[in-house]
Amino acid sequence: MAAGAELIVNGGFETGDFTGWTLSGNITNTGVDPGFAYSGNYGAKLGSVGADGYLSQILPTVAGDTYVLSYALENLGGTPNDFGVLWGGMLVPGSEFVDAPGFPGTVFTFDVIAPGPNTQLTFFFRQDPKFWGLDDVSVQGAMGQFVPEPAPFVLSGLGITALLLFRTCRRKAVA
Questions:
Q1: Residue 77: what pLDDT?
Q2: Where do the structural domains in the chain lie, given as residue ranges?
């Protein structure tokens, strides 16, 4: 996978619907709405009442590779509520909110490691009195996934050392 390639389909919900996403669980009060756009024209309005709803995609990943997950999230407030992110079925540390106070659109970013060749990204949500707003969902290969090259001064030092050893060995052989 090329570093930086986008894996999410319709991460900004700009189709005006959930194309590319799978909805499950309690999806009452869930939709795509211009009033929930962090950028662009649309965002997801997530307001499941009484039980969690789920929004997911299965992404083509390489086991063991690091990816950068980011999304914009807002909470219109009120309790009870919860929100979180599962990556390959495991909770992404730092992504969970329970009975959170309201907050404006905020971008969250996490480094995640793919557990296998296909990884499921799932958002779970409940917001009884109001809504969560989700937009600009992105998963990209981490930049800089490469084997670093030695610094030029290290190579120069190795070259000089090799020449000195060669010269020393040559002198001993002549003597």
A1: 94
A2: 22-150
Tell me the C-alpha distance between 95 and 77, whole Å: 17
**In the chain, how many H helices and how many E strands?**
1, 11
* The pLDDT value given to residue 4: 72
- Report the pLDDT value the prediction gives residue 142, as an integer from 0 to 100: 77
**How high is the pLDDT of residue 149?**
40
User: Is 135 in contact with 21 (CB distance < 8 Å)?
Assistant: no
Name the residue type at position 89: G
Strand partners, 91: 86
Nearest residue to 70 via CA among 14, 21, 11, 22: 11
The CA-CA-CA angle for residues 97, 55, 112, to 5°, reads 65
Q: Which CATH superfamily is domain 22-150 in?
A: Galactose-binding domain-like (2.60.120.260)
**Taking the CB of residue 49, how many other CB atoms lie within 10 A of it?**
13
- Beta carbons of 26 and 104 less than 8 angstroms apart: no
pTM, rounded to two decimals: 0.80
